[in-house]
Amino acid sequence: MTTDSTLRFGAQTDEVTSLLRIVNLVRTGEATTRPEIGKVTGLGRGVVSQRVDQAIAIGFLGDGDFGASSGGRAPRTLRFRSEQGRIVICALGAAHIRVGFTALDGDIIDHAHRSWDIAQGPEKTIDAVMSLVEDVLKNHPPVPVWGVVVGLPGPVDFATGQPVAPPIMPGWNGFDVRTPFEERFNAPVWVDNDSNLLALGERARRRDMLTDLIYCKIGSGVGSGLLSKGRIHRGANGAAGDIGHVRVSDSNEQCRCGKVGCLEAVAGGWALVRDAEQAIKEGATTSLAGRAKERALTLEDITLAAQAGDSLAISLVQKSAHVAGETISALVNMFNPGVIVIGGAIASAGEVFLAEVRQRVYELSLPLATRDLTITLSVNDEREPLRGGAELAREQLFDVTFPRWFAEGRPSPERTAVPA
Questions:
Q1: Are the beta carbons of 153 and 140 closer than 8 angstroms?
Q2: Cα distance between residue 221 and residue 244, in whole Å
Q3: Highest mean pLDDT: which range of 315-319, 342-346, 413-417
Q4: Whole-structure pTM value
């Protein structure tokens, strides 16, 4: 029998490698009985039995129901004990906070949402996030947190967990987002761009671990998450996919980042609200005028009005789609995805937006790059960033860092910090 010492310090041995693989085979459902594990791994019956007993003793696996018989005694299935830990996800937007937690299999157990201006700064925002998380967790039995994911609406250095010059987040540049969560939950913490979480959420929903996909989020700002063979492409410094600040030809609009002519300054939600308010001041006939008298307009107001046939709203949405489609077409030529998903608040405009994007992409992209391309709207489920955050944590816990901590039975911040 492998000793605890061997498990701690022999993570490169064949014995421990096979143990890790068996746990992950059961966790992913690829093999759930001892005979199936033997077929997939090529290990003998005695070795499989020994490794499974070890995994059960450490606490990762448990016995399940009996499986189908192939002529002899029905084999007992194994199950991954997903109930033993939780994953906490905090998805921050420009004007909201959404938190939730899942079991280790990624199933969302509970979640909550509140409005919040992220420009209030990191200290106040993190306090608000922690309070919301506590409100959600207190309604459920205490279970150890195995990982925390924080999504931010701006560029993030994934290795350090620090925002990098985020245009709409004053005071956040270089802020240590990770440490407060590590100290509170005594668990590893990963910080990433919100568009990356949405891309991972699409991967989970489609159950396609090798997908080539671009998730384009158009809300208050504009960004994208890039999946290459199922893996997030972040770039050298975490800036990959930041299409909101690509220059739009013939535009002189001032962007919130300080530059001129950015895609976000033409196609982003705040830009559409700006243009709608200006049109109303100039006397445009629109259903939005009445709403503007009552309160500040939002992108959702514009998209809903477009769906209802308002001419001003339709023209604004189509303008956004036109310039966004041009930028997306460049990504299509360079990245050659199989799927493009349009999400964010703009998705509420439906085909009014999507039809224009499709036209521009197919018009400007290479025929080979668009031959098998699907362009679609997101499911527009408010839980998608939570689902994507759980995917990120599970990937980091069980694919990237598992050998460092599995002998302890649960992860800790020191053992699973993302290397620089």
A1: no
A2: 7
A3: 315-319
A4: 0.90
pLDDT at residue 250, as a whole number? 87
* 3-state SS assignment for residue 106: coil
- Tell me, what amino acid is at 348? S
Distances (CA, A) of 296 to 79, 282, 290, 293, 361: 52, 17, 11, 8, 33
H/E/C letters for each residue in 234-298? CCCCCCCCCHHHCECCCCCCECCCCCECEHHHHHCHHHHHHHHHHHHHCCCCCCHHHHHHHCCCC
Q: What is the mean pLDDT of the chain?
A: 91
Q: Are 126 and 185 in contact (CB under 8 A)?
A: no
Residue 241 identity (one-letter amino acid)? G
Residue 76 and residue 33 in contact, taking contact as beta carbons nearer than 8 Å = yes
Whether the CA torsion 23, 26, 29, 30 is positive or negative: it is: positive
Residue of 31, 27, 29 whose CA lies nearest to 61? 27
The token pair that represents 283 in the structure block:
């006397």
Separation CA 26–CA 200 (nearest Å): 21
Reading the block at residue 28, the tokens are: 């992913």
Predicted confidence at residue 244, as pLDDT, reads 93
In whole angstroms, what is the distance from residue 219 CA to residue 264 CA?
10
3-state secondary structure at position 126: helix
Range with lowest mean pLDDT among 16-20, 140-144, 334-338: 16-20
Query: Residue 90 phi/psi, 5° resolution?
Result: -125, 110
| Spatial CA neighbour of 248 closest among 326, 319, 318, 314 | 326
Other residues' Cβ atoms within 10 Å of the Cβ of residue 354: 18
H helices present in 59-137, as ranges: 122-137
Number of C-alpha atoms within 13 angstroms, CB side, residue 130? 15
Residue 395 in tokens = 């990937």
| Positive/negative CA dihedral, 118, 119, 120, 124 | positive
The residue type of 121 is G
Report the phi/psi class of residue 327: left, alpha or beta, with left for phi > 0 and alpha for psi in -120 to 50: alpha
Q: Name the nearest CA neighbour of 418 among 187, 160, 177, 174.
A: 160
**What 3-state class would DSSP assign to 282?**
coil
Cβ neighbours, 10 Å, residue 29: 10
Average pLDDT over residues 240-260: 91
Is residue 59 within 8 A of residue 85, CB to CB? The reply is no
